Structure formats: structure tokens, C-alpha cells
Amino acid sequence: MVAQEFTVDLDKPLVFQVGHLGEAYQEWVHQPIVSKEGPRFFKSDFWEFLTLNRWYSIPIIWLPVVCWYTSKAFKMGQSPPQIAVILVFGIFIWSLMEYTLHRFLFHIKTKSYWGNTAHYLLHGCHHKHPQDGLRLVFPPTATAILLVPLWKILNLISTPTVAPALFAGILLGYVMYDCTHYYLHNGQPRNEISKSLKKYHLNHHFRIQTKGFGITSSLWDSVFGTLPQTKSHEKERKQ
After folding, report:
1. Residues 189, 198 contacting (CB under 8 angstroms)
2. How far apart are alpha carbons 15 and 52 in whole angstroms?
3. Whether the Cβ atoms of residue 26 and residue 111 lie closer than 8 Å to each other
4. Whole-angstrom Cα distance, residue 134 to residue 37?
């Protein structure tokens, strides 16, 4: 007797359904539904509330933290030029973290029930509903939890006077990333740079989802060979 394929009911909470898709999950989650109205995740109103985040909560919550750690670096003897250099280096480190997390964690292949469920919560939901404006930025609660080990690691690999500014730079890079990501999905770019970034990122969602992992830039895609081919180049190869 052949087992019947599982079908996701989009009118019911999705999180605990998607795990049943098994190996079919990867194909399902990469078939986007373009709608600004996102799906319901949980039956519980409390857990559902925790998944919904306005984009402006990110700068409101985290920019004061960036300023506090920057001022801490200044009080510990770092000069403004030194702090500026460390901040820029922190942003640079974040750009590599952004690429690495997106490529190797957010696009990990899953097929087990809990693997699919965890992936959907982490990133799959964004690929399935890319225009869901309330789930485009990372939940502040989860960010706060992840910042604890980051701070500890930075204290292990750098000096006490460098760690605060480096932490501030990485966090600033994250804020820039999350706000940029929201804008690329919901904003209307007016200059060539932002238009190019939007085209590049939407290409990742709707054309080649296995390439183009950079959000704020294509730098690391160029370095690691994951730049997506242009349509004209694809046509030339097919001829």
C-alpha cells in the first residue's frame, strides 16, 4: 500500500505541519507564495506574537547597545580614530558572518520532522512567504540570546579594550543587514546601488536560490564562487 503524500493546509498553523513533508519539504519551501499577509505559525496567541516583529524594533533596541559599547571602548582608553577602525572591522566581520550563516545554516538540507520544523522557523518561512513584512527581521529575543556567547568569544580572542568596540561593530553590521533586508523586500529603491541590491536579492528568492547569499553586498559571493549567473549568460550556455 502506497503512503499518501502529506499536504500542508495553509489555513491552519504551519509550524508543526511542515515536518510531515519529509523529503518533499525542500521543494515545497522553495516555491514562494507572494503575499504581504503572512501565515499563522502557532495556535497559541503568545507564541504567535513572539514571531511577529516590526522592522523598526531592530534599530530602536540595538543602536543604543551599539552606542553603549562604543562609549565603553572610549572610557577604556581607545581614541575615536581607533574606535572607528575597530567598528569598521566589526562590520566587515559581520558581512562574513552574514554570508556564512545564510549559506551554510539557513540553507541546510533537512528531511526529518524536527529538522524541517526547525529550518522553517529559522529561514524556510522567509523563502515560502518572502513578502511577510512581520517576519523579515530576526526576533530581538533570539538576538539577545545569541549575543551572549558572541560577547564571551570576543573577550577570549581580543583584548579587553578592543572587545567592546568590536562587539559594537558586529552588532552595528547586523542592524544594517536586517534593515537593508527589510528594505530590499518592501522598499522602493531610487538609486542604482539599492536597485541593484534589490534585484540581486530577489534573484536569490525567485530564480537561483542556491546562489547569491549576500544581502548587504555580493562581496563574499564573489570570493567563494556563489555569484549567480545572469540571464544572458544562461542563454549563451544553452545555445
Report:
1. yes
2. 14
3. yes
4. 9
Decide if 29 contacts 122 (C-beta within 8 A). no
Largest CA-CA distance found in the chain, in angstroms, rounded: 73
| End-to-end CA, the chain | 45
Contact 124, 24 (CB under 8 A): no
Render the burial of 68-85: b for 16+ CB within 10 Å, e for the rest.
ebbebbeeeebeeeebee
CA 5 to CA 135: how far, in whole Å? 28
CB 17 within 8 A of CB 9: yes
Amino acid at 25: Y
CA atoms within 13 A on the CB side of 22: 5
Per-residue confidence of the chain (239 residues) as pLDDT tens digits? 334 588 999 999 999 999 999 999 999 999 999 888 889 999 999 999 999 999 999 999 999 999 999 999 999 999 999 999 999 999 999 999 999 999 999 999 999 999 999 999 999 999 999 999 999 999 999 999 999 999 999 999 999 999 999 999 999 999 999 999 999 999 999 999 999 999 999 999 999 999 999 999 999 999 999 999 866 555 555 44
